[in-house]
Design a protein that fits this description.
It is built from two helices and two strands; from the N terminus they run αββα. It is mostly helical and about 100 residues long. It has one domain. The radius of gyration is 28 Å and the shape is elongated.
């Protein structure tokens, strides 16, 4: 319940900051790639940059998560082998040390 309320409050705050930023920055940014030249509002330029940053971060995290998933699979396999080894050792009869 509190998590959802906190998330809703955070989204409302972000929208308020975004609205304020858009209202205060009415200028334009010119994008010149040599063969392509266009002018965009500052708020749109920052929003696109923000989204591209999020996508790049998700791409980097995906590689890290795949590495963790692979490591988890290897560790589970090792655990299974160790558990079966312990189980087989427990089933061996005890011998007296004379």
């Amino acid at each position: 319940m509190f998590k959802r309320a906190g998330l809703i409050i955070l989204v409302i705050i972000l929208f308020a900051v975004m609205f304020t930023f858009t209202a205060l920055n009415t200028g334009h940014v010119e994008l010149d790639l040599g063969f392509f030249k266009r002018s965009y509002p500052v708020s749109i330029a920052f929003a696109v940059t923000f989204v591209l940053g999020i996508l790049f971060g998700m791409l980097c995290m995906t590689a890290f998560v795949f590495r963790l998933i692979n490591e988890r699979r290897v560790l589970r396999r090792s655990l299974r082998v160790s558990e079966s080894e312990v189980s087989s050792l427990r089933n061996l009869p005890l011998s007296d040390a004379d």
